[in-house]
Write a structure and sequence with these properties.
Blueprint lengths: L3 H9 L18 E4 L2 H4 L3 H14 L8 E4 L6 H9 L5 E5 L2 H6 L1 E3 L10 E7 L3 H4 L5 H4 L3 E5 L3 H8 L3 E5 L4 H7 L6 E3 L1 H10 L5 E10 L4 E5 L4 H16 L2 H8 L3 H10 L3 E4 L5
Helix pairs in contact: 3-11, 3-12
Length: 276
């Protein structure tokens, strides 16, 4: 497997998607270019509705925005490259110092922290040995698995973990099964779905233990559009104040249960430091 740096260069060397329409002409209705919501991440439709809500809260007599989606199937590093180079206007992503240097973060945690409590997907055969793991020092003796471009990988490494990565999400489960690493940190929603999807393949959740680390998910706006970042910040604040953001959040399949599961977890939470 090529090193991550080579993979990143290969991705960025791909031909750019056909030019999308410009964000806005003077006096014209607002047009925004963003990722394809179905292909970019889980809950993509929710993020698009949160965007529409924030814009509606700050509209001044204008009609609904026109949203133009990038082609499906573009990898996340490619989409971030497009944002930096004026081919997208915004996207949604967990934050890292590097990402905040490349685009303008709208500091409103769209997932309410539901992605910040991570349960451990392990091999079921290892459960007898792993049940004694109760400290960070003991857990660091194990190897973690993560996507090459996940901020989780950076967080784990910054906290002293050995992390094996792959750019292809589906390979993580094969690698875990083959013993390439010992656990994958997953949200409550993710691990429940993946245990069902991979039933009978020898996976299990390590009970009574979770990792917890700050990993807010923000809208990121192109650096040349500070007016848009400020408008989204104000709109989301207004939606939070009047309860309309919470109503949207609770109506999204999976997020309501994820929030309840995060709040009700009674096991041991091992705290990791966030990225500086």
């Amino acid at each position: 497997m090529p090193p991550p740096s080579c993979l990143r260069r290969q991705l960025l060397a791909l031909p750019l998607a056909a030019a999308l329409p410009p964000a806005r002409a003077a006096g014209a209705p607002l047009t925004l270019r963003l990722p394809d919501p179905q292909a970019y991440s889980a809950h993509g439709a929710f993020f698009v509705e949160a965007l529409r809500l924030a814009l509606a809260k700050t509209a001044q007599g204008e009609g609904p925005p026109t949203l133009v989606h990038a082609p499906p199937g573009l990898p996340r590093p490619r989409l971030r490259h497009m944002l930096q180079h004026g081919q997208l206007d915004l996207l949604w992503s967990t934050t890292t110092p590097e990402r905040e240097a490349q685009a303008l973060p709208v500091r409103f945690n769209l997932l309410k922290g539901t992605n910040e409590l991570r349960f451990l997907l392990v091999r079921a055969a290892d459960l007898p040995a792993l049940r004694s793991v109760r400290t960070l020092a003991a857990l660091r003796r194990l190897r973690a698995g993560a996507g090459t471009f996940w901020s989780d990988a950076q967080i784990l490494r910054a906290n002293g973990f050995t992390v094996e990565t792959t750019p292809k999400f589906e390979l993580l489960f094969r690698m875990l099964k083959a013993g390439r690493f010992d656990f994958i940190p997953r949200t409550r929603e993710e691990i429940d779905a993946e245990l069902v999807l991979h039933v009978g393949q020898g996976f299990a959740e390590l009970p009574g233990l979770a990792l917890q680390y700050k990993q807010p998910l923000y809208f990121f706006v192109a650096s040349d559009k500070p007016w848009l970042a400020e408008r989204l910040r104000r709109g989301l604040a207004l939606a939070e104040a009047d309860g309309s953001f919470d109503a949207l959040f609770m109506a999204e399949p999976g997020l309501k249960d994820a929030l309840a599961g995060m709040r009700s977890f009674k096991g041991l939470r091992l705290q990791l430091k966030a990225l500086d």
